[in-house]
From TrEMBL:
PROSITE patterns: HTH_LUXR_1 (PS00622), HTH_LUXR_2 (PS50043), RESPONSE_REGULATORY (PS50110). One of its GO terms (molecular function) is DNA binding. Keywords: DNA-binding, Phosphoprotein, Plasmid. The modification 4-aspartylphosphate is found at D56. It comes from the Bacteria. Residues 137-202 form the HTH luxR-type domain. This is Two component transcriptional regulator, LuxR family. The keyword DNA-binding applies. PANTHER family: HTH-TYPE TRANSCRIPTIONAL REGULATOR YHJB-RELATED (PTHR45566), NARL SUBFAMILY (PTHR45566:SF2). GO terms for biological process: phosphorelay signal transduction system; regulation of DNA-templated transcription.
Length: 207
C-alpha cells in the first residue's frame, strides 16, 4: 500500500516530536518534513508537495489561517488537517472556510488523527461531532427536501452535476434544478459557500 506523505507544521517542539512518533508508528504514514512556523511550512510544502498537511493554527511569523489560504491559493487541491488547542466556533469556521478539510483538537487520539489523515487523503472531510456542533451554533437550520439533502451531501464531497446524477440515478438537468433550489434556500452564492453553510448548520455529517 502506498504511504501517505505527511508534512507537520507545529511550533512546539515536544508536540511536534509526539506527532512524529505517533504517525511514524503507522506503516501507511510517512512523515516527510516538519516545520516550526508558518512561513517555513509554506516553503516546505512547495519543496516536498506532501499528500496531507497536519497544521496548528497558532504559529509564529505566519498564522495557521494564513498558511491555509496561501496553500489553497497556489495549490487548490492541498489537503489540510487542523490540529489545534482551540475549539471555538469562529476558529473552526475560519479554518473550514479557508480550505481545511479536517479539524481536530489536540486531545484527539492517535487513531482519530490517523482516521482524519486517511479521510482527507481520500478527498473527504473529517469533522468530529464537537466541531459540527460548534459550526451549527452560528446559524439556524434550513428546510431541504430529502432529495436536496442527498444532492447537498454530494456537493460537499466535490462531485460534479453529472457525477451526482449518476450517483442518484436522475437526470443531470434535474440535478441542476435541485442545486439551484438548495442554493437559494441556503442563501449561498455558489457550491463552495453551500458546503460551508452545510457544515455550519449541521446539514451534513462526516464520521
Amino acid at each position: 500500500m502506498k504511504q501517505i506523505r505527511v508534512l507537520l507544521i507545529e511550533d512546539h517542539f515536544l508536540a511536534r516530536m509526539a506527532l512524529h512518533s505517533v504517525l511514524s508508528g503507522h506503516a501507511q504514514i510517512a512523515v516527510i518534513g516538519e516545520a516550526s512556523d508558518g512561513e517555513l511550512g509554506i516553503a516546505m510544502y512547495r519543496e516536498h508537495r506532501p499528500d496531507v498537511v497536519v497544521l496548528d493554527l497558532r504559529l509564529p511569523r505566519v498564522s495557521g489561517f494564513d498558511v491555509i489560504i496561501a496553500l489553497r491559493k497556489d495549490f487548490p487541491t492541498a489537503k489540510i488537517v487542523i490540529l489545534s488547542n482551540y475549539q471555538g466556533s469562529e476558529d473552526i469556521y475560519r479554518a473550514v472556510r479557508s480550505g481545511a478539510m479536517a479539524y481536530l483538537t489536540k486531545d484527539a487520539s492517535g487513531e482519530e488523527l490517523l482516521n482524519a489523515i486517511q479521510s482527507v487523503h481520500r478527498g473527504l472531510r473529517y469533522l468530529p461531532h464537537v466541531a459540527l456542533d460548534r459550526l451549527a451554533e452560528r446559524t439556524p437550520a434550513v428546510d431541504l427536501t430529502p432529495r436536496e439533502s442527498e444532492v447537498l451531501v454530494c456537493i460537499t464531497q466535490g462531485r460534479s452535476n453529472q457525477e451526482i446524477a449518476d450517483e442518484l440515478g436522475i437526470a443531470e438537468k434535474t440535478v441542476r434544478i435541485h442545486v439551484s433550489s438548495l442554493l437559494d434556500k441556503m442563501g449561498a452564492r455558489d457550491r463552495t459557500q453551500a458546503t460551508i453553510y452545510a457544515l455550519q448548520r449541521g446539514l451534513v455529517h462526516f464520521d
